[in-house]
Design brief:
Rossmann fold, 5-stranded parallel β-sheet, 243 residues, 2 domains, 41% helix, Arc Repressor Mutant, subunit A, alpha/beta, 9 helices
Length: 243
């Protein structure tokens, strides 16, 4: 195998990556399966929403390729249930090509969003990027900033000793900022490092909305934030010396 194929085959847990292709179109499902099996992946299939959730319940899936138009339970509901019950990455593959739809689905918790017809080499590269992001933090690494404690090993956050419920993406964004206190990041920087994206296909306003949601959960006064400051005309920074 090539270097990329070696990485693809071993990027999750040191073993072959197991994908779940949740797609009701038989020809698309078969083409996806054949490509990724040639690349060294293990591939499971699901033809509808209930079957997708049943496969995920086994706890063996490393990443889901999710079509939104699934019968039984649609892709939106599958995504919401998956985010509620697990941290398995989800890449949405859909024919719906609008900025509003991208933002909506990413805010539901998708890790990436691709519009059909798919380029399998690009999809495979995005899979590797998503899985690398999931492994980027050292297991057990704790960011302790006084009353705010971020455990990247268990992916938990506590404030004044009480748990803070964050979505997967909110956690990734907060942990990234908190790992470099005082450093200013533009929204484009955060799209690249947290989303693995660029403004050419994902709007920077996505970052703004996630910052707003995090502030609502960790700031005493979200309108006068102390943990995540806005640097006017530039971006955001995390303030370690929080009063």
């Amino acid at each position: 195998m090539t270097t990329c194929e070696d990485e693809a085959a071993s990027v999750a847990h040191g073993t072959a990556v197991r994908l779940l292709v949740a797609e009701d179109d038989a020809s698309s499902r078969l083409a996806t399966r054949r490509f990724f099996e040639r690349m060294g992946y293990l591939v499971d299939e699901a033809t509808d929403g209930p079957a997708t959730l049943q496969v995920l319940a086994r706890g063996e899936t490393d990443l889901v390729l999710l079509d939104l138009g699934l019968p039984g339970i649609d892709g939106d509901e599958v995504l919401v249930k998956t985010r509620r019950d697990s941290g398995v990455p989800v890449i949405v593959c859909t024919g719906r090509d609008s900025e509003e739809e991208r933002i909506r689905v990413l805010d539901l918790g998708a890790d990436d969003y691709l519009v059909k017809p798919l380029s399998f080499p690009e999809l495979e590269a995005r899979i590797r990027a998503v899985l690398r992001r999931g492994q980027s933090a050292a297991p057990g690494a704790v960011l302790d900033h006084g009353d705010l404690r971020i455990d990247r090993g268990t992916r938990t956050v506590t404030l004044h000793g009480a748990p803070v419920e964050l979505t997967r993406r909110e956690f990734d964004l907060l942990a990234f900022l908190a790992a470099a206190p005082g450093q200013v990041f533009t929204r484009e920087d955060l799209l690249e490092h947290v989303w693995g994206s660029t403004e050419s296909w994902q709007v920077p306003a996505t970052v703004t909305e996630h910052i707003r949601r995090i502030r609502a959960k960790v700031e005493a006064d979200p309108d006068r934030p102390g943990w995540i400051e806005t640097v006017r005309g530039v971006g955001y920074r995390f303030v370690a010396s929080h009063p």
